[in-house]
Amino acid sequence: MESYKLTHLRELEAESMYVLREVAAQFENPVLLFSGGKDSILVTHLARKAFWPAKIPFPLMHIDTGHNFDETIEFRDKLVEKIGARLIVASVQESIDKGRVVEEKGVNASRNALQITPLLDAIEEHKFDCAMGGARRDEEKARAKERFFSHRDDFGQWDPKNQRPELWNIFNGKKKMGEHFRVFPISNWTEMDVWQYILLEDIDIPNLYFTHMRKCFERDGTLLAHADFMQLKDSEEVKEMQVRFRTIGDLTCTGATLSSASTLEDIIDEVAATRVTERGGRSDDKRSEAAMEDRKKQGYF
Amino acid sequence: MTNEQTIEKYDSKGYLDMELLRFTTAGSVDDGKSTLIGRLLYDSKSIFEDQMEAIQAVSDRKGDEHVNLALLTDGLRAEREQGITIDVAYRYFATPKRKFIIADTPGHIQYTRNMVTGASTANLAIILVDARNGVIEQTKRHAYIASLLQIPHVVVCVNKMDLVDFSEKEYEKVRHDFEDFSAKLAIKDVRFVPISALLGDNVVDRSKNMDWYQGPTLMHNLETVHIGSDQNHIDSRFPVQYVVRPMTTEYHDYRGYAGRVAGGIFRKGEEVSVLPSGFTSRIKSIDTMNGPIEKAFPPMSVTITLEDDIDISRGDMIVKVNNQPEAKQEFDVMVCWLDDKSMQLGGKYALKHTSRDARCIIKDVKYKMNINTMTKIEDDNNIGLNDIARITIRTTVPIFLDSYRKNRNTGSMVLIDEATNNTVGACMIV
Q1: How close A276 gets to chain B, by Cα (Å)?
Q2: pLDDT digits over A218-266, tens only?
Q3: Residue A280 pLDDT > 60, yes or no?
Q4: B92 touches chain A (CB under 8 A)
Q5: How many domains, in total, are found in chain B?
Q6: How far is the C-alpha of A119 from the C-alpha of A117, rounded, in Å?
Q7: What is the structure's pLDDT at A286?
Q8: A182 and A152 in contact (C-beta within 8 Å)?
Q9: Shortest Cα distance from A18 to chain B (angstroms)?
Q10: Which of B77, B91, B237, B386 to mutate to test the interface with A (most CBs of A within 10 A)?
Q11: Do A166 and B297 touch (CB under 8 A)?
């Protein structure tokens, strides 16, 4: 008898492609938020598959905090050129210069929370009615209740108590003027799924995910990469270490892990054995137990 | 090692070749549902150290005796403060055999809508029963919803066995009572497991306190239940989601129909009909970015091209010539109402069915279900939040439908309030 079964990775792939196609069909002007991290690279890959042999029918947008890893920008530009996508860059520095946001002060200053304003400004400026992101429900408690299609009011806010029920695979993207949606095509993927799929599909990712030597220092139990704009406390000492990153975001708050994983296979073994969540290395989530929920309500992706 | 070699190695380890099981959990308040999920995550080693430290700290602060595993799944701040789960939350874990997605839904009477939501995508439902209380009204309601939503497999967990001295008699009583009333329902596969979520008996590890129980643990059930036949592989249905037109030099005349197979099997070269036009053609290719394939089945997302140039757009459906869904404008559905504002008899709503959008009017209420007694109420037209009823609707355009029992993808639809855009009704075609 023939087998009509899909593996978990192929089933997740089919679900995500379905969601991406629903976005293209239900919205007039969607955009894909691209951070340069593996999750947004995965969504971009799935979008290519969903519309192949046509190009991705929406632009990519990078919210640039100005505190990037150089490798991320290089990778982003190469990828965009390879797949022929349109790239929009919204800059936190510009928002600071315009006086739209005020830079945080002190050693723990991060531009992570400042991304909300340029994001919402860009959505308004380009009249985007849907912003897709690579968030996953397994990342964090507040995300476990997020819908695939998440409705935002005209202030870009998320109301956890007033989310539309999502049944079967029917997605309701109806909205009023000024409102928009956040859509999360890889909601049901776990960190392990993402790595297994990157291996299965041979997807290019930035070298930051593999082991390398880097100048780092320790703060509150997290290893942070050193860069010129990082302020050090007196007690902190910069050392050359063998590290890799499990997530890639704003440099100021993305923790490195000591690792010698040099291949995807090593990374999968490491993820399988690891005892700390991915976001465990993100100092922005540590600020309070409900940190993520607060940022989401304000419009963080 | 090349990528292919690595993939081969991991395939042999089983990492890349797992099945996905989606299940939902239902229980009344204090049946220990969050504790059970916490236990499954904990015993399958899916909890990370930082998560464990966080809940340990909260438990200590509150002065709890055990580490409160329920804290792992109570996500939003409002819930943590009130100590109850108020919405559907999704959880993930994997064992070497399968990957699991849990739709964790609350059991309060006012949250039928959440259970229906969680149940809509599930292959399996866990229904928790407190061994001390036995089968109560809420248990019946959960079983009814599992049956209404056609969840293929149900596992009844008789929980808190530690509080009834691990008594076989108490377990058998629950089992007997449940079987007695569920005979009236359309549940195909029911299993029973006596457990203690708090202590871990028969959840992942076999109980040392219940020698009289020879059946599999809950985890063994979850890992081995046969889900290969849960999809409809007979009645071929392909709702067109999006038309792919590259308009490049290489693919100048390419016109592909992108969608997810909703039922049956489509093969290259087969004759198909396109609804609503009724034109027939043959499948020229089934395309993916990884190359063309010979056959597509649910739940695959593919792009189909046809031999003939037919005008097809989103909302159309590709089917087999000799096996077609009914095209109807007036039909009955079972509706679960999801909104605070009651259903308006004679009111107009937007409707979504597969990739098709339409409008409809509520023509008639046949009966409302009393889901506690499972009796029909024939003279009550007020359908409010969490009510379940059989209604007749009339649509603006023909809908290509199957009964929900035959196909959960083409037998389901949602109603949308046109003033608020909220999803207000979940419908199952009778």
Answers
A1: 5
A2: 887 788 888 877 878 888 888 899 989 888 877 777 788 888 889 998 8
A3: no
A4: yes
A5: 3
A6: 5
A7: 47
A8: yes
A9: 6
A10: B77
A11: no
Looking at beta carbons, which residues of chain A come within 8 Å of B20? 6, 8, 11-12
**Region A8-192+290-298: CATH code:** 3.40.50.620
Which of B313, B307, B308, B334 has its CA nearest to residue B391?
B334
DSSP per position, A12-66: HHHHHHHHHHHHHHH-SSEEEE--SSHHHHHHHHHHHHHHTTSPPSS-EEEEE-S
* Sign of the CA dihedral running A200, A202, A207, A213: positive
Nearest to B416 among A9, A174, A199 (CB): A174
Determine contact: A49 vs chain B, CB below 8 A. yes
Q: Domain for residue B1, yes or no?
A: no
| Residue B8: predicted pLDDT | 60
Residue type, A274: T
Pairing of strands A212-219, A180-183: unpaired
The pLDDT of residue B132: 95
Instruction: Give me A29's structure tokens.
Output: 């002007």
- For residue B70, is it within any domain? yes
Q: Which residue has tokens 């219940």?
A: B210
- Give ipTM to 2 decimals: 0.91
Q: A109-141 pLDDT, tens per residue?
A: 666 677 778 888 888 899 999 999 999 998 876
Note whether B20 contacts A175, CB cutoff 8 Å.
Answer: no
Domain that holds residue B105: 15-224
List, for chain B, all residue ranges whose pLDDT scores fall below the cut of 50.
12, 76, 83-85
- The answer to whether the Cβ–Cβ distance between A161 and B259 falls below 8 Å is no
Quick check: is B169 in a domain? yes
Q: Model pTM?
A: 0.90
B266 shares its domain with B196:
no
Q: Does residue B174 sit in the same domain as residue B214?
A: yes
Residue B82 CB contacts under 8 Å (≥ 6 apart), including other chains: none
Give the gyration radius of chain A's Cα atoms. Answer: 19
Classify A34 in phi/psi space as left (phi over 0), alpha (psi -120 to 50) or beta: beta
Considering Cα of B266, then B269, then B273, then B277, what sign does the dihedral take? positive
B295-296/B375-377 β-pairing: unpaired
Contact A9, A196 (CB under 8 A): yes
For residue B230, tell me if it sits in a domain. Answer: no
| CATH number of the CATH domain containing B386 | 2.40.30.10
